[in-house]
Amino acid sequence: MGSLGLVTPQAMHFAEPLLLQSGAQLGDYTLMYETYGTLNADKSNAVLICHALNASHHVAGHYATPKSAGWWDNMVGPGKPVDTDRFFVIGINNLGSCFGSTGPMHVNPATGKPYGAAFPLVTVEDWVAAQARLADRLGIEQFAAVMGGSLGGMQALSWAIMYPDRLRHCIVIASTPKLSAQNIAFNDVARQAILTDPDYHGGDFYEHDVVPKNGLKVARMIGHITYLSNDDMAEKFGRKLRNAAETNDYNFDFGIDFEIESYLRYQGDKFSEYFDANTYLLITKALDYFDPAREHGGDLTKALAGTKAQFLVASFSTDWRFSPERSREIVEALISNRRRVSYAEIDAPHGHDAFLLEDARYMNVVRAYYNRIALEVA
Amino acid sequence: MGSLGLVTPQAMHFAEPLLLQSGAQLGDYTLMYETYGTLNADKSNAVLICHALNASHHVAGHYATPKSAGWWDNMVGPGKPVDTDRFFVIGINNLGSCFGSTGPMHVNPATGKPYGAAFPLVTVEDWVAAQARLADRLGIEQFAAVMGGSLGGMQALSWAIMYPDRLRHCIVIASTPKLSAQNIAFNDVARQAILTDPDYHGGDFYEHDVVPKNGLKVARMIGHITYLSNDDMAEKFGRKLRNAAETNDYNFDFGIDFEIESYLRYQGDKFSEYFDANTYLLITKALDYFDPAREHGGDLTKALAGTKAQFLVASFSTDWRFSPERSREIVEALISNRRRVSYAEIDAPHGHDAFLLEDARYMNVVRAYYNRIALEVA
Prior knowledge:
Two copies of one chain form a homodimer. Chain A has 378 residues and is α/β, with parallel strands linked by helices. Chain A folds into two domains: 10-178 and 295-377, Alpha/Beta hydrolase fold, catalytic domain (Rossmann fold), CATH 3.40.50.1820; 183-284, Rna Polymerase Sigma Factor, Chain: A (Orthogonal Bundle). Chain A has ten helices and 14 strands. In chain A, α3 (181-195) runs antiparallel to α7. Chain A is globular, with a radius of gyration of 21 Å. Chains A and B meet through α3, α4, α5, α6 and α7 of A and α3, α4, α5, α6 and α7 of B. Chains A, B: One of its GO terms (molecular function) is homoserine O-acetyltransferase activity. Chains A, B: Residues 45-358 form the AB hydrolase-1 domain.
């Protein structure tokens, strides 16, 4: 397996307004994207990769700065499961993100100031509609596959529902057909932490030259707990004390006693330094709102009735955020529709985060599936 | 089953200093407590009830104000599982609490100002030592039983370890021999929310005439999610919209869309109005620190080797905070020590909170156990 090496993000501007599910409208907007590999002559080898909460169009390869590898660099590249020697892979940054596509940090043409909290709430379906326009511009009528993990999997599923003729394969990993009350609850606590941080300034913190760092940190810590499995946390951290090498005793203060505290606070700090609070708020709302069965009286089978793609659905045994049970709901609804679907429930210790991590069985499942797709392309 | 009717809290002052596990010392202190029923002539029918995170000495009966029933009023009273016609029951408020026993809101004799964050961190073992002094004063050499749920169960377990001759029965419900990394993680996020609230003022918010309401609210929301089961939340709230009767559509803003958001924010608001932030911090630390096996190289069997009580251990199937597995660790360590132990794993939908709720099977288990204890007393 080789490396993609240096990759370069591109920007595409859209002057046509985008009507959003909320009824609001984005007058014009820019989408950031990256491509890897070469589009073949009949444009049949394109793969779209959709990102999850905190990721971006930078799926694979790296930038000139160190430590800038793409978030799915283990999955996408020459000779990798999604083989860029055979496929033309597109990574795209969603609207409302803080990584380049039009979002809350950009200037609202109506006011001349950053959108802030005035950036319209966008849904998974809105993202997919915007992605379809980018595909139009690139001349891609039909993707060989649309693929994503977690929130990215919701986008892949929406592609299959909204544009059944525009993808041959739909790959949905560690995802769910809708958030549970518990999932929503965790998102709402995270949002409350941000919204009540005095440095949030009702979303207009940019002009105050601050960021709601504490709120974002707490939000990320909560999120992070739900990404890891209980067992994995127990094994990696357990009750290990940070000062184990020294006193190996409790500090009896509100500083850091346990390694797990140190780890989570570090993750929270790091996140609050690069992620935008308004983006966090709106992406968690997009998660909460996703529920394609909703307009079919809650019937997922009906929601998936118009799909034409073939499906690969994968879940991880220790994922308690979007458990295997949630993936099986998708699989069962597809089977009820007599869709062709492969399902892999991967026994992996790493909880929800497993979809981003190296795991031989997981990688082999995806590789085998893409080998099959490649036969159709060649 | 009758009601205890009006009950009256009592205060007991202790002038003898209490040396704490941290090495700090409380010069003098007051403990609030309540008693129900009558202590018999040989003082053999006393039962001590230990409280969990947000509760108090007000276990049963009610005060003059409405809605002031004790937190375990379904469990303790005339004809109830812990029958006050037969037992003399004591509810006690722990040190550091905000319900009357000496805590962060009280005046620190060293400074003449409220302790605030300067109140020394107290451990489960410290609480038990203070409870033992109250028992001394009441002339109770040996309890018929010491009983508690969750954090209260940890105190009961500590009684069995610290004062093996002072209790005949130890009743440990919905508890654990130590917090997991995930448990600690949730506690630490909650603490971070409080500590970073600008209204916390390093713990001295009393003199600023504010409370860190937002931090406490977020802390409580996080806690509350872990008290409920995933299934129970799904059944009670699911994805129900708060405006279901009106538009039954998303609001596309950061207000309240889902019933679960409304419920949790309400719980958070309510809690932040009556609970003290410093108390929340120190009680979560007591939870984190509890680990009786620690000084025995992590061997719980060794930690319980000196116990003499008989045990009732109970857990609830959907409790994912302190799962049945954690209770079974206690049971197995007791069995290894050839202690007499009854174990009930109750199939109940309500998660960790089940230990506070009415459930016929649960109540019957406790009732049957106390019937057995009553035979020894009579």
